[in-house]
Amino acid sequence: MGGPSKERPVSIQSGKACLKALKQCGYNVEKFDPKKNIIKNLKRIKPDIAFNSLHGKFGEDGQIQKILEKLKIPYTHSGVLASKNAMDKIVSKKIFIKNNLLTPKYKIIRKLKDLKNSISENKFVIKPINEGSSFGVRIIEKLSNSKLKIINNELKKYKTLLQENYIEGQEIQTAVLGGKVIGSVEIIPKRNFYDYKAKYSKSAKTKHIIPPRISKKISEKINKISIKAHNCLNCRGVTRSDFRVSKDNKIYLLETNTQPGMTELSLVPEIAKYHGMSFKTLVNWILNDSSLKR
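Structure (tokenized):
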């Protein structure tokens, strides 16, 4: 838990919640914050299993997974390549497209002149290619000098950005556990979009609706797409796929998260609870899944 990424505060919250649940399950648990001397400290602890509550870079992009595999320590959630590919928004989009999964049109931006009007002349999304929790995500409505300045500042920070068509419609997020869908939630943010504050602050008053206000047919399609996304990325354990359902009922897959949040406001635990799975049971399932053959 913790780690060096921008998502450290969320990871600490996830870690605390999982630590408590694991202790309630009767396990002997030691918390570990991988900031320095990682290999030395892991060798000292000698864990039977590493429960990965890290979020963001290093924690869910294959890096900590490589270290754990080198030390032959079983760990929770997806493996090295699946984690790396899912975290990279360009690579994951290419995998989705190859597998006939509809995803918003996109353009890779490395300099301002790469901005493509055909993506959307009036409204589009700019995002880093390998951040989570909506860090660096901007909704751009009509390009202006001030908006170009914002995008240029993001380019200086991240070097590469993704320009993506903005899809008007419902935001649906779906949880997959062990290759099976456990349920979905509809997200209605009061803020401009489902940004960091909307995700993690109670004061943002983001509405979570379970089950989502969609037809049975759309729900079944989303379930199939979620499982296909989980499988084509070669994920394991738990994943959460994010969707937009447009006004003409087209289902756009935005991304698949291999390391979903496990805080009290997190979506996967909320979905699981609604469908009869307690937080403790969910955490125990994730832990036991880590011992499966990779």
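DSSP finds ten helices and nine strands in the chain. The beta strands are 106-109, 123-128, 138-141, 161-165, 169-177, 180-188, 207-209, 238-246, 251-257.
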